[in-house]
Amino acid sequence: MTTEIGFIGAGNMGGPMVKNLLAADYAVVVYDSSQAAIDACVAEGATVADSPKALADAVETVMVCLPTPDIVRAVALGVDGLVHGSKIKTYIDLSTTGPRMAMPIAEAMEEAGIIALDAPVSGGVAGAIAGSLAVMVSGPHNAHGHHRPMLEKIGKNVFYVGDKIGMGQ
C-alpha cells in the first residue's frame, strides 16, 4: 500500500524533495502559492490541495519546506492553516525557522492533537535534487522513528538530535 503524504512548499528545495518522495512510491499531495511549482509536481505524479487546511483534511502526515518563519507560521497556524485540518496527525517542518518559531508552532500543534517534528535540512538545492540532504530532527523519538524511512528519501544523513522541539534548528 502506498503511503500518502502532504507537502507544502514545492519550490527550489521542496520540488526536488517531492520528486524524490514520488520516486520512492509515496503518494504526494502538494500545496504551493506558485502555480509553476504545483504544475512541476503534478507532472511528476503529485496531486493538489487548494489550501493548507484542505491538505491537512486529506492526509495524516504533512511536510513543509518554506522560505521564511512568517510563511511557516501562516501555513501552520493561520485561518486556513494545517492546525485546522481534520486528518493531520504529524507535522514535519523542514524549514529553517529557528527555535523561537519552531517551539510555539509545535505547542499549538500539540494542543490540537498533532505531533510536530522540527527537521530543518542542509545541503542546498543540489542536495535536494540528489536526495542527499542532511536532516536534523527533534521531537518525539517514536514519531521520528516512524517517519525516518520517509526522511531518508530526501536526505542521506538523518540525525535525531533530541526530543525537545527547536534542537534541530
Plain-language structure description:
It is a single chain. This protein is an alpha/beta fold and 169 residues long. 40% of the residues lie in helices and 24% in strands. The protein has 7 helices and 9 strands. The strands form 2 sheets. A 6-stranded parallel β-sheet has the order 3-2-1-4-5-6, with helices on both faces. Strands 7-8-9 form a 3-stranded mixed β-sheet. The model has no long low-confidence stretch (mean pLDDT 95).
- How much strand? 15-25%
Q: Return residue spans where pLDDT drops below 50 for at least 5 consecutive residues.
A: none
The sequence of SSEs as H and E is EHEHEHEHEHEEHEHE
What is the strand arrangement across the widest sheet?
Answer: 3-2-1-4-5-6
Gyration radius, in Å = 14 Å
Please, what is the average pLDDT? Answer: 95
Percent in helix: 25-40%
- The structure class reads alpha/beta
Q: How is the main sheet built? A: 6 strands, parallel
The 3D shape can be described as globular
Q: Note the total helix count.
A: 7
Structure summary, number of beta strands: 9
**Distance linking N and C termini:** 33 Å
Secondary structure blueprint with pairings:
Layout: E1 4-8, H1 14-23, E2 27-31, H2 35-44, E3 47-48, H3 52-58, E4 61-64, H4 69-77, E5 90-93, H5 99-111, E6 115-118, E7 121-122, H6 124-130, E8 133-138, H7 141-151, E9 155-162
Q: What are the main properties of this structure?
A:
about 25% strand, three-stranded mixed beta sheet, single chain, six-stranded parallel beta sheet, about 170 residues
